[in-house]
Structure of Acetate--CoA ligase:
Amino acid sequence: MNYYKIDSLEKYFKIYNKSVREPEEFWGRVADENFIWYQKWDKVLEYDMINADFKWFKNAKLNIARNCLDRHLNKRGDKTAIIFEPNNPDEAAQHITYSELHERVCRMANVLKEKGIQKGDRVCIYLPMIPELAVSLLACARIGAIHSVVFAGFSASAVASRIQDSECKMVITSDGSYRGNKAIDLKGIVDEALQTCPSVESVLVVNRTNSEVQMKEGRDHWIQPLLDAAAKDNVAEIMDAEDPLFILYTSGSTGKPKGMVHTTAGYMVYTAFTFKNIFNYKGDDVYWCTADIGWITGHSYIVYGPLLNGATTVIFEGVPSYPDFSRFWDIIDKHKVNQFYTAPTAIRALAKENLSYIEKHDLSSIKVLGSVGEPINEEAWHWYNNHVGRKTAPITDTWWQTETGGIMIAPLPFITPTKPTYATLPLPGIQPVLMDERRNEIDDNQVVGSLCIKFPWPGIARTIWGDHQRYIDTYFSAFRGKYFTGDGALRDEVGYYRITGRVDDVVIVSGHNLGTAPIEDAINEHPAVAESAIVGFPHDIKGNALYGFITLKERGEGRDRDNLRREINEHIASHIGPIAKLDKIQFVSGLPKTRSGKIMRRILRKIAEGDFSNFGDITTLLNPEIVEEIKNERID
Ligand code: PRX
């Protein structure tokens, strides 16, 4: 039996059972038959779920960039690897073949080496969605440098804290970036960030917008002349299975972002396997994921997963609303996209617009639709199904996380019967469990619980950069011996999972994972603010939006409230990024606290949602009277 491709529901159950009964045999076969290795493993898996220690394909030697590129050159050298669709529809799209991509990656790899980057060094990549972004990831992987991509919407201080945390030696950026009708000064943001980043020795700059930038002598270099001068061949570094491939930061329950570390072999096997099965990619299909490579979805399902499978993947620089709301549909029509993978927040925003935007385009190429990043509500699901999928393209609602490396729970198109709002069944190798409040495993169906995974899978993050204890505390301590996802889920009568949302202090806004703690930390730095508490509340388009309850210091009391609100949001934008701005800000005279001084967020969440029923017992609060005040002055 071919374990790599599941083609019927019966085969899914067979493979799933095999993967649970004999995980090593299962993953060993998948790894053995579908990749190139310098040396095979001694053991498929060694693990410890208490100390969060995972070794997949122990002692195997490989290079993931070689698996993404070199392996395809004989058979698919002339096939398009990347279609680049620029922000401006009048600028020509680019088709980059596997051979061309291979050459560009080799040249870039040689430039990195020439600038002193060695195996194990960290390289921060702060680029817009242009081909050089994918090329930079692969070039790092080729020479064994660890890439740390920072989403190019983050502010200078967010970039700085990420560079400092992993002590990056180099930054790859561009002069500027285009997004819709805006041009953003990326190099200026990097310059500001680097004032507090002594580890950075060099900055490579892509010319994208032809804008004037400051180039610091000795540190900053335009990349193109270096690429032109570099050799076009590069021998890929021999990497150990567990060598780190990349760091990707995600927000956490304290102000400091968590640098999730993914390693080489397990991540490769898992992203390739999941891409193959979830998107039903065939032959010369054109696959398009609209995420940004600055997030895990882009790492795994724009770059690594598709290229490992020799697919054609679209990189889109722009936004769905530019030049108008038909842009997505225009691109699907223009490039005859077969698999389309986007986020519910985009679907909801586009569903609000006139249907004529979509109706003037031919979407008949679409075979499979994907959704990711947040729960998809019933209305959005049906709109997606009716208007984009024309009721013939199955929707795969894919649940996963930065930490999981790849998709964990999702229907396989044409195989798993879909059910709106349900991510349905786990992928082979994934063993989800629901836990009750007493921390016991729930056996029944038709129940809600905290979603945990009880056995390792190859794509699991291995640690938090520089802080393994935090990794254990965050993911492996709430339910001993299990990986805790931070999500709640419902399991229905046939065993389908529906993700109900976060059960911790993370809020998913427009598909972006935002920890409330870092936002509170940023707000509290504002000179007029004494204390703050941020909670999420339901929002028609964004899924959730942020509501801030803020107490002021004496000097803030006399200030104009609207000015203060504006200042606080500007403060958040410059400390974190515009995505973390608050939709509502209520100034309060105090925050509800327990006797031990902990803010009772449960109550604030209910007030923000406008649900005044059942606050629970508030008499144990230190200041129960405050609840009434906050309720009465709630912003609608
Ligand atoms: O709450 C879940 C939500 O997004 C969180 C992970 O966010 P991040 O690490 O940024 O990765 C996003 C892309 C994989 C999860 O804990 N989430 C993601 N996908 C879904 C989802 N919630 C419901 N349904 C989904 N399909």
Summary: Residues 250, 296-297, 371-375, 397-402, 423, 485-487, 499, 502, 508, 513 surround adenosine-5'-monophosphate-propyl ester (CB under 6 Å). The first strand starts at residue 43 and ends at 48.
